[in-house]
């Protein structure tokens, strides 16, 4: 048995390592599936600038938009988001002081978001017809009115109505983005202006609770407010509405013009040359024949 196994193993080894008459194995080249590394964002913008067609020498240059022109847009976003920050920090305390339950507080917050979802598309579409600044002022006016109604409300119904009104007019951020895109020239200026709109919104959210705390702390020193949480909350919303009204009056006479888009310069079309028909060669003038020549031509003479 051992001898048979040894013979079988030797035969297998000879077949494996011995010379073979079969053709050699051809290894196919390995295909590389790697892609070239994508350039960074800065490189992409550089390539895009390099690929941009050069401007025509006779095309008019658009003046860059100044920061003073865009100040009403940023102020509208700042005041809108400041009111949101004030509401997030003060409204729960206000409703709790009025004796509202947690479900009622959640209803007021959800009502604002639901109305904002409905109002934003309508106001953005309306701004294309009546103007961006007009809709931004409408948003400021709605924010101010909602804050004043919240301050003067005596129960849940009044506060809920005021928060729904604030949500319907809370479209300053999308309208401001569209306005910036129209006013600024395409390129880095538009990116910078859009980033400032986002910064104004963030500053409003951050400064809102601090503004509410400062107003409430100052209101405690007034004898009419004292330690009352309801009076302090009303004073906070009153100050927020007054600030929105002041900004609305401050920017009431501001106007800006949309940056006119330069029409693409088309290459000059070659003018068709008038085709002139070549004049036919004039027939040689023949002198009239005399009577004798005429008679000889006809065979009479």
What does this structure look like?
The chain is mainly alpha-helical and 301 residues long. It has a domain at 67-250: MFS general substrate transporter like domains (Growth Hormone, Chain: A, Up-down Bundle), CATH 1.20.1250. Helices cover 64% and strands 0% of the residues. Helix 4 (102-130) packs parallel to helix 6 (156-168), helix 7 (172-183) runs antiparallel to helix 8 (188-219) and helix 8 runs antiparallel to helix 9 (229-250). The radius of gyration is 43 Å and the shape is elongated.
Which helices and strands, and how do they pair?
Elements: H1 2-17, H2 41-51, H3 67-97, H4 102-130, H5 132-152, H6 156-168, H7 172-183, H8 188-219, H9 229-250, H10 291-297
Helix pairs in contact: 3-5, 3-7, 3-8, 3-9, 4-5, 4-6, 5-6, 5-7, 5-9, 7-8, 8-9
The chain-level structural class is mainly alpha
Q: What distance separates the N and C termini? A: 148 Å
Computed Rg: 43 Å
Return the CATH topology of the domain at 67-250.
Growth Hormone, Chain: A
Overall mean pLDDT: 74
CATH superfamily of the domain at 67-250: MFS general substrate transporter like domains
- The ordered H/E elements are HHHHHHHHHH
Task: Provide a brief overview of the structure.
The protein has helices spanning 2-17, 41-51, 67-97, 102-130, 132-152, 156-168, 172-183, 188-219, 229-250, 291-297. The chain is mainly α and 301 residues long.
């Amino acid at each position: 048995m051992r001898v048979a196994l040894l013979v079988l193993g030797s035969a297998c080894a000879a077949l494996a390592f011995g010379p073979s008459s079969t053709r050699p194995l051809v290894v196919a080249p390995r295909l590389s599936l790697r892609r070239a590394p994508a350039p960074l964002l800065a490189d992409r913008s550089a390539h895009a600038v390099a690929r941009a067609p050069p401007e025509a020498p006779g095309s008019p240059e658009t003046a860059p938009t100044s920061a003073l022109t865009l100040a009403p847009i940023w102020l509208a976003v700042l005041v809108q988001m400041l009111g949101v920050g004030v509401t997030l920090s003060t409204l729960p305390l206000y409703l709790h002081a009025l004796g509202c339950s947690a479900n009622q507080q959640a209803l007021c917050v959800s009502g604002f978001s639901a109305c904002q979802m409905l109002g934003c598309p309508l106001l953005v579409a309306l701004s294309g017809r009546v103007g961006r600044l007009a809709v931004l002022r409408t948003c400021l006016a709605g924010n101010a009115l909602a804050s004043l109604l919240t301050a003067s409300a005596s129960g849940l119904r009044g506060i809920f109505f005021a928060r729904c009104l604030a949500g319907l007019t809370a479209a300053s951020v999308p309208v401001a983005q569209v306005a910036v895109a129209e006013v600024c020239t395409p390129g880095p200026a538009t990116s910078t202006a859009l980033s400032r709109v986002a910064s104004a919104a963030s500053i409003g959210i951050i400064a809102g609770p601090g503004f509410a705390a400062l107003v409430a702390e100052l209101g405690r020193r007034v004898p009419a407010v004292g330690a009352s949480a309801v009076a302090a909350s009303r004073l906070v919303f009153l100050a927020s509405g007054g600030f929105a009204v002041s900004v609305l009056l401050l920017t009431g006479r501001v106007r800006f013009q949309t940056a006119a888009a330069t029409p693409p310069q088309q290459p000059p079309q070659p003018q068709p040359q008038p085709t002139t028909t070549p004049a036919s060669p004039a027939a040689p003038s023949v002198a009239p024949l005399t009577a004798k020549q005429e008679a000889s031509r006809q065979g009479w003479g």
